[in-house]
């Protein structure tokens, strides 16, 4: 039974940890699972990722970003996600098209209707069955990310350098997106300890699997 789950969240929301937990949990239950992350997940997507994150590319325009993120996504959907779903697998992705709506749309103020059309085109109309949004206050998320960098985990990239106001718009954008489609979105408190979040996520996914 194909199932497409995405994780979204602002910087430092702990998505990647929870993606790992969920993938492990699903595998233990015998599901065929694939995890991906955006931007990236294919050779072409990873090359695009380098262009996007390069600190030398400070002059990159928001419109250019939209097309690069969308290009990486188009490749990921066609090469990896859709074929895996067609074989009945479960795909768990760290970010997807909602990141474009939140960051380029709400964050950079680009037209949401246009971004939705571009995303439709890039994904061939593939949207997740379930989107888990890990909510953390902006300052808390940025603090976590800086701490991780001091510990040498993860690199501080071009996209991390946007100002706090930008990240605030992104967070509010996510909350608006979640509110407008409660059937697909689950908003969870990302400031909770990783273990209790893991339990909540397993419960949400169990219920979803049970309903099917
Ligand atoms: P990454 O280092 O993967 O960050 P994170 O661990 O927060 O996912 O960098 C991805 C960055 O790209 C992140 O700042 C969000 C941004 N982004 C967009 O602006 N638009 C998009 O469509 C996507 C997929 C990501």
Average of per-residue pLDDT values? 94
Number of domains: 1
Beta-strand percentage range = 5-15%
Return the CATH architecture: 3-Layer(aba) Sandwich
Unreliable spans are: none
Order of SSEs: EHEHHEHHEHHEH
Rg result: 16 Å
Mind summarizing the main beta sheet? 5 strands, parallel
Instruction: Work out the number of β strands.
Output: 5
CATH superfamily: P-loop containing nucleotide triphosphate hydrolases
Broad CATH class = Alpha Beta
Structural class: alpha/beta
Describe the structure in brief.
It is globular and about 45 Å long. Helix content is 57%, strand content 13%. By secondary structure, the protein is α/β, with parallel strands linked by helices.
């Amino acid at each position: 039974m194909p199932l497409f789950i995405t994780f979204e969240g602002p910087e430092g929301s702990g998505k990647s940890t929870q993606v790992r937990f969920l993938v492990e949990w699903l595998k233990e239950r015998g599901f065929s699972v694939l995890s991906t992350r955006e931007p990236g997940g294919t050779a072409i997507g990873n090359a695009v990722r380098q262009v996007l994150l390069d600190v030398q590319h400070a002059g990159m325009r928001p419109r250019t970003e939209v097309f690069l993120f969308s290009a990486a996504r188009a490749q990921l959907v066609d090469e990896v996600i859709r074929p895996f779903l067609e074989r009945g697998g479960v795909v768990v992705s760290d970010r997807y098209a909602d990141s474009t709506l939140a960051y380029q749309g709400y964050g950079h103020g680009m037209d949401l209707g246009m971004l939705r059309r571009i995303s439709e085109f890039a994904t061939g109309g593939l949207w997740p069955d379930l989107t888990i949004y890990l909510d953390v206050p902006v300052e808390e998320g940025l603090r976590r990310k800086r701490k991780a960098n001091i510990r040498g985990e993860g690199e501080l990239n071009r996209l991390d350098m946007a100002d706090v106001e930008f990240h605030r718009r992104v967070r509010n954008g996510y909350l608006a997106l979640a509110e407008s489609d409660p059937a697909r979105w689950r908003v969870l408190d990302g400031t909770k300890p990783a273990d209790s979040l893991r339990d909540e996520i397993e419960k949400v996914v169990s219920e979803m699997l049970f309903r099917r």
